[in-house]
Amino acid sequence: MKGFGDSAFVTGISGGTVRRLLAGGASIAAIACATPLWAQDQQVGSETTAPAEGNAVPDADAAAEDIIVTGIRGSLQRNLDIKRTAPGVVDVISAEDIGKFPDSNVAASLQRLPGVSINRSGNRGEPQGITVRGFGGDFNETLIDGRRLSTASGGRSVDFTTVGADFVGQLAVYKTPDVTVSSSSIGATVNISYPKPFDKMGERIAVTAGGSLQDKAGTFVPTVGALFSKTFAGDTFGILGSAIYTRRDTETNRVFVSGWQGGRYAPCQLAGSTAATCSPTADASSAAWATPTNRREIIGWYQQQYGADQRYTKDERLDGRLAIQWQPSDAILLTIDDNYSRQTVNTNIAGFGMWFNQDQLRNVQLDENGTTVDFRQAGTPTDFTGAIESSLLETNQVGANLKLQATPSLRFEFDASYSLSKLNPDGRISSDNADVGYGGLLGTTLGVAVTGDSRNSFPVLNTFGPSGNQARWTDTSVIGSHVTVRTAQQNRDEVVQFRANVAWERDQFSIKAGGMYLEDEYSLQGRNTFINNHWQAYAGYGAPSGQGGGVLIPANLLADRIPTGDWIPGFEGSLPPELIAINPFLYQKYLEGLGNPQVQNIPGFNAGCCTPPFTGTFDLALDPGRQNIREKTYAAYIRGDLKGELGGMAFRLNAGLRYEKTDIASSGFGRLPTSIVTSTTDPTLLTVIFTPEQSVTTESGYDYFLPSLDAKLEITDTLHIRGDVSRTLTRPSLNVLTPVLNIGVGQRRGALTATGGNPALQPFLSWNYDAAVEWYYARNSYFSVNGFIKDVSNFNVAGAQSQTINGVIDPTTGQPAVFVVSQRVNGPSAQVRGVEIAWQQVFGDSGFGFNANATFVETNRPYDETDLSTTGFAVTGLANSANFVGFYDKDGFQIRAAVNWRDKYLSQFGQAQNNSAFGAEPTFVNEAIQVDLSSSWDITSNYSVFVEALNVFDEVQSTHGRYSNQLLDVFAYGRRFTGGVRFRF
Predict the structure, then answer these.
(1) Which residue from 173, 220, 492, 738 could staple onto 627, CB 3.0 to 4.6 Å apart?
(2) Residue ranges of the TonB-dependent receptor plug domain (predicted)?
């Protein structure tokens, strides 16, 4: 029996014809649906692993004697072969052997490729997403065996921490599109291929068992998995099943500034002012305006909130896969598969924070850029926080693929899939929070000094403790209740996809045409204690703070402490000596144990706080911000592939056209504010009162033609040049297409915010140009240079403007309330251009080699830090990067060192707290370099051991705002060590 490839169904024809078909043309769809190369003794290009159309590897007879199939070198050779023969720009990472992918995380492997960088989760340091040629997140489409995967996050991108790398067969990154698959990614299309039973006939078993240890967490946690594959009935029926359980524990120290807000100071607020009184105002009609030193006219940025916390995260993931293949004849192949994943993440957080308001700051010192580097704020409260965050993400994708070979030249393919992703389907609480502390009469005349750069220092508290007494920093006799935040989020994303293709091939010409239907329905709803205002039920910090609200917390609930010495390695700065680790469950239980304030008098209860009235339990109320988005996309496409000679040199031309039409129906619930009231027990807290909610529904749509042209010329057998032109699009995230304005019930003084969706958003559009030179100068070695240009229009930007809403009055100023409203709009155009350089070298049969690459990018729309408009714009994600992997692979022993560097880049517009008068403030990620080591040893042909060390030099992750000394976050997530054994039979 013969195997199937997308380029041709291999029927009972001559071996020479088989080899010609295997070496013939390629497409992205082929790799998407083709079986990966993962068997230990399998020859690259063999009949059982025919790669898909257009990405074929060299003739099997020519390659069999030279290619090392398993290990690092075998994997690199397979990757090189696909890159060499593909019509477009493609980079590939293949499994080194059954059950042996190069990295434990898919994104960690992808960052080894030219032009690809990773985005790390600050909490865990895990690679969470990728950026390709400067385009991250939603600009990159991730497919599973050629199919869209649902994501309950609401974005287009896949969180790679939810995708296990164990038992993955191959990763392919397509930087130029194939119109028969998709043109919905300006960055790249990433296809993850899983193994199937016909990859290797007979019986195959792979087992992995091991564990990992993060140095800060100090807990060894397990990983165990197994894969079984077997073919039956004369190799006409096969079944493959795999399952793996993975756990990662991580302890992370963090220092944060939740937002650098831009605004204007009055001269009386600055250091050295001799003004007798200080009443900052921007209202020219007010009495205070008559005194020039009160006029807010001096531009400056200040910290909205400063603090530190420690996070302990337990990440558990279960991945399972079942694949069945049936080939009743040489002309029919049916594949049915099911991929399941379940990830549970629980995080315990303990920290502190201080809140600041610009009009209350005094003795302010500004640097030459306007950054507030020192100040004092009288009466500053101190909050100690404890939180337990929990999420469950469950995703299942089932698909069926039928291939029919009608004649030796004509074939058909039908593919259907259904994917469902659910966030917290069990209705769990997403976050339980305890917030305690002191303020009011015990408020501190506190300041924060910025003494260095965000790359190596964090701000320093210059006073702290009750009334500035540092010795009483954690004095339990004055610590009382503040706020109690509880949230529960449930999202659901459902994707239905159908695809049908017909392909005809004759000699050196082939044509493929078809259509696709994809329906994506995303819905979300949340519940929290903000809507009913129960979060403020015991605000005020208790009697010692003298604000009339709150109750003292028993000392036994505040007994657990966390020392803060050596908090962030390599960083200068100082923190108070310890944190309080308060359990939010015990805190809430204590407050609820006080009774029902509606039937008894409870001193410290915030009377009249809540609607409906607080009856003694912190109930969650349904958030009216719930929404439902349904997106339907219809596509038709055609692609032709011509192979021949030009001036005696092998030449290939691939041309295609894709038409896409998208219809969007968006619904939600809207309401308008009618008034704002202050808390009777805490002057920093505000409550917004609303009109009844009303249902809002809108419909919109768009359609585009998306052409693509790839040309490749083989000047010699080893020297190739290629050029590509295409048009691609990236759709807006589903979660920004809501038709309603969302205003939070609970607000903070001086920080009124609102967010609005825009269901009429059009997609990003890009014309893409690539030109490459590739030199395959030796076995398993090559050097390439690839230049690219992307002309992108219709950028979706987060516009922000200050405005009044429904004429409500701000009770803290007596003036119309000014909200900072953030909403995404279609905006400007920009060009991104760059060059990728890649070099792979294996030194003969010595076992030594390396793989290195570097990417240099730039844009005509860089960030302008002097632009103070509320609609400032720049291209995000752009950063120079470089990767180097050096290895030794011989006689069953492997060792690998990987170095990954990424320069500073603009990550996004917007910060955790973004109430700046100058619109959405930027978030920059600082330059980072990480070194990882791994090694394995084949004890026997069936048994091997492995070890891995990640982040060997204890690199931290840090971000900053508009200027480099405006630290936003710094995470120290430590090193991780992994070890275990593998069996394969």
Answers:
(1) 738
(2) 83-188
Given a cut of 50, whether residue 54 has pLDDT beyond it is no
pTM for this structure?
0.85
Which has the closest alpha carbon to 484: 609, 378, 343? 609
Residue 382's nearest CA partner among 587, 602, 684 is 684
Beta bridge pairs of residue 937: 893, 945
- Token digits of residue 148: 């869209």
Q: How many CA atoms lie within 13 A of 820 on its CB side?
A: 25
Query: How far apart are the C-alpha atoms of 590 and 587, rounded to whole Å?
Result: 5
pLDDT for 82-133, tens place per residue? 888 888 888 888 776 655 676 667 777 787 788 887 777 767 777 777 888 8
Sheet with 188-193, strands from edge to edge, namely 90-94, 170-174, 188-193, 140-144, 147-148
Q: Are 459 and 967 in contact (CB under 8 A)?
A: yes
- Return the half-sphere exposure (C-beta side, CA atoms, 13 A cut-off) of residue 548: 7
Looking at the DSSP bridge assignments, the partners of residue 630 are 521, 665
| CA contacts within 13 A on the Cβ side of 536 | 29
Signed CA dihedral, 736, 742, 746, 751: sign only: positive
Q: What angle do CA 874, 305, 756 make, to 5 degrees?
A: 50
> What's the rounded Cα separation, in Å, for the pair 526 and 532?
13
Question: 501: closest CA among 514, 492, 489?
Answer: 514
Q: How many domains does the chain have?
A: 1
Q: Please check whether residue 426 is in contact with residue 510, taking contact to mean a CB–CB distance below 8 angstroms.
A: no
916 and 370 Cβ atoms separated by less than 8 Å: no
Sign of CA dihedral 784, 789, 795, 797: positive
How many angstroms separate the CA atoms of 427 and 816, rounded?
39
Determine the average pLDDT of the residues in 247-255. 95
What phi and psi, each to the nearest 5 degrees, are found at residue 949?
Answer: -130, 120
Report in angstroms the alpha-carbon separations of 45 from 170, 768, 790: 15, 31, 34
Using DSSP's 3-state secondary structure scheme, residue 499 falls into strand
Q: Residue 800: its pLDDT value, please?
A: 63
Name residue 750's amino acid: G
Indicate which CATH number applies to the domain containing 121: 2.170.130.10
How far is it, in rounded angstroms, from Cα 941 to Cα 448?
A: 61
Phi-psi region at 145: left, alpha or beta (left = phi > 0; alpha = psi -120 to 50): left
Question: What CA–CA distance (Å, rounded) separates 454 from 468?
Answer: 27
> From residue 154, how far is each of 85, 183, 389, 521, 658 by CA, in Å?
36, 20, 19, 10, 26
* Cα radius of gyration (the chain): 30
Flag whether 85 is in a domain. Answer: yes
Tell me the helices (H) and strands (E) count for the chain, helix number first: 6, 57
Tell whether 92 is covered by a domain: yes
For 756-764, what is the mean pLDDT? 81
**Number of other residues whose CB lies within 10 A of the CB of residue 830:** 19
Range of the domain at 137: 72-202
DSSP three-state, residue 534: helix
Strands (E), 286-371: 298-303, 305-329, 332-355, 361-366
